[in-house]
Amino acid sequence: MKFSKFCFLFVTFFTFILCNFTAQAKEYSIPELRIEVSVNPDGTVTITEHRTYVFDGDFSWANYELPKSGFSAIRNIQVSENGSEYVNLNSEEPGTFLVEESSRSFNIKWFYEAENEERVFTISYTLEGAVVIGPEWSELFWNYAAAGREKSTDELSILFQLPEVVADSNVHSWVREPAWEIESTSFDRGLQFTGSDISRSQAVVIRTVFPTSVFDPSRISITDRGFSLAWARNDEANYREQQIAEAEERERMMTYGIELAVIIAGLSILCFIYFYRKYGSRHQINLSRNESLMIPGKQQPAAIGWLLMHRTITGAHVTATLLDLARRAYFVINEAEPEKDDSWFASASTENTFHITDAQKEPDSTLTEWELSLLSFVKERISEGHNDISKIFKFTDGNVSKWYSSWKDELKSFAEKQGWIDAASYKGAWWNFGIQMIFMLTALAGIFILHPVAGLAAIVVFVASVLSLSIIRRTPKGEELYKSWKNYQEALKNAKDYSIPDHHLGRHFIYSIAFGLSKDHIEHIFEQNPGAASAITWIIIMPGSDSTPASIATSFSNLAATGTISSGGGVSGGGASAGSAGGGASGGAG
């Protein structure tokens, strides 16, 4: 049974890892686009696009999405590969394709089988209404590759062909995007455009103007009587002037953005320095930094843990308080064998657990409110039949979560009343934070109004806001206490360098958990005391157990570290219009 259980778990785990690895390993690129644009005598345009895919992994489909922009209708949609036509059939079988239509685009999706190879797919279609036809001149203004497409393009070529031979001087073109990365050459029936290393964020938009005489007069009609070569030239000149003006405006706004960022960042830093010096400068205490394993005082472990861990309360403080109550004879902790679980997904751990019993001792006057709260809570859980410590503090239980939230408030209130923290420093922290938020809003406004470079100030402001916490300082009394206990904490970390008396071992153990020391540090406390188990009378080792004080320490530090208590918590487009680019295809694969 155990062997079959192991095999099942192993196969399940291995399958999951393999599937996950396979999913992550799939990758593809579209390094080359070859586009053939044929202007037909009837005024339609046939676009044939050869898309080279390089697959790394297993792929079964690809798509080509064409926005409904700049044409009135689309027909004769075809997909092929190496001269072999795909069938327009909505079956998702290899060798088929389908066309999906939405209010905004046509999506051509085809299916195949490919693995770790290079394939070239050809998509072709005929567009109606894509050409603006004027009395003497016509234009195709087209977006041949959309910005934001799935992959960048290493090599791009566009062959623009007219129905008949035209003199070079009668074919005109303007590359809108990318203006400096596309080269053009002419031939007897049109133009060829080439480009390389075109980013996926960059569109390819080209305007081409040619004589209307290339069309069959009987098969076309004039769509824009105001269109002419002079109009197109003037429109392009206006566009260039607009681009130059926008570039100058962006540069001007960037200059303002930089100035604003410098001013805000400078004010932010000065603001923090002012409040830190006024409210957060640390009190100077003449106290030696020598490490010492002499316990500095009688303060409760959780309260000192709050001080040393910068006013943070964790599950380790609950564990330390529970152990301290056991040390003071309110509870007895017993080592026990783990409960057996024969379910398929049961843990195979053989580590022993710890049960707790009520020692029936009446609370004395030295117990604080939060210690009494923990004492009564554990007693109640024991009376309900919860003896296993890990189950007593099961966070998924709503009652435990509610109690823990209340207990943290009680401990925090107690610690704050000890006079360890300067109350006035909170004022400085809040003032700094509030002013930094004003700077933050100003920086964010600068991003949208001026230039994104103003966001650099937001980074400085964010750091200065977080540093508000550093303004909170300890009182002279709190500073002296902090340094004394900090020396003690450092000594616990280096316990292997000291000789530790057995009668102090239990308290060292409790404080080390309250301070959040690692398992290794806690184990070092016990390694030099092989007979230390007898010194911790409030933990009863199971007869015949091979547990050592070091392993017990590990179990309890695990209990604290792993969250004894956790605070986590067929429709057509509008047709072409002069001066507006249509198209903008993109596509992917999977």
From TrEMBL:
Cleaved signal peptide residues = 1-25
Which keywords does this chain's UniProt record carry?
Membrane, Signal, Transmembrane, Transmembrane helix
Q: Does the keyword Methyltransferase apply?
A: no
A Pfam family (short name) is DUF2207_C
Enumerate the spans annotated as Predicted membrane protein YciQ-like C-terminal domain: 295-522
> Residue limits of the DUF2207 domain?
29-210
* Highest taxon listed in the record's lineage: Bacteria
Protein name as catalogued: DUF2207 domain-containing protein
Q: Which organism is it from?
A: Gracilimonas sediminicola
